[in-house]
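Notes continue from the previous slide.

Worked example: a multi-chain complex. Inputs as given:
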Amino acid sequence: MVIQLPMATKDLTFQVTHNENAKSAQEREEIFANPGFGKYFTDHMVDICWSEHGGWHRPRVQPYGPIALDPAAAVLHYAQEVFEGLKAYRHEDGSIWTFRPEANARRMQRSARRLALPELPTEYFVESLRQLIAADGDWVPGGGESSLYLRPFMFAKEAFLGVRPAAKVNYYVIASPAGAYFSGGVAPVSIWLSTDYSRAGRGGTGAAKTGGNYASSLVAQQEAYAHDCAQVLFLDSEESKYLEELGGMNIVLVHRDGTLITPESPSILEGITLDSVLQLARDRGLATEMRRVSIDEWRDGFNAGDITEVFACGTAAVITPISQLKTADYTIGSADAPAGELTMSLRQELTDIQYGRKPDPHDWMVRLDG
Ligand code: PLP
Ligand code: COI
């Protein structure tokens, strides 16, 4: 069945094809019982085409399924790709909301510029989420801390082996019910300091959300797993001295006076969770500092009792306490250190806003259904 849905913008109308083989309510409930992260996908996906001459066109919601690619598609060879990650939350009254989607849209535009990809206008980005939720709203779990993880992405589809920006690109949105990102739930995690590998360098793609950054982090992430650590921490590539970020999240150190300190660097991803947490801290009258932070500052500060808590933050991980940093030469903290008090109270405040349990003073939430 094909029905036309008007889009918020006048020049784009989504064509919707319903999935005849959609999962049953019971199958969905079974998935919701133990969703993990990124393992199961909903019944539909969004697909919008772009071409150099036609611009954005043919917006569709279609059954979730494999994408046919020419073996010469540029993305397979030169990794011209960007993506985003945000979540849909079900509130107590059944309504479905997301968190600061315009910020994700703008970041995707910045990432696209860096990767010489076309920029998807903000209103198309937000409308694409609404369209997917119109088809797959039943996939947003309710209760606890579950959500529907939304993954917009865009890549070079043109079949051409010359190295230049592709003239044909597709944008998609897929969605996946999500529980905790780490298998241990919200429990504190150990992280591993990578000294052999960098995530990004000066003038590189570190600030863009592009697959290559994650590809280059994998070997370091393997090292982390080998040392019983859940994530890897990268340092700056020039001096191997200053904290950058984890493979898939930002990092924050908490001073004993409540100041939140987070690395400043042109080669890290500007996290929306990070920005929000810093705002919530400022709302409480706490100081926040975004500046260069050396690994020695962390170690000395921990030993002196000045750095009292450390946490990771990102859409997938929300706010996750870090109990220890392991390096080849020394360890900061210990695996059994409890979650920090301020860490957990900021986590509670943020998730209360996201799940609609508390007022949303900054108007961060955007309704996706209805
Ligand atoms: N840094 C990296 C490398 C990430 O992959 C993410 C996750 O998206 C973040 C930071 C946190 O960004 P956000 O809070 O916008 O999800
Ligand atoms: C996110 O938090 O959205 C991310 O992209 C992190 C990724 C490692 C799952």
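Summary box: Residues 211-226 form the longest helix (16 residues). The domain at 2-180 is CATH 3.30.470.10 (D-amino Acid Aminotransferase; Chain A, domain 1).
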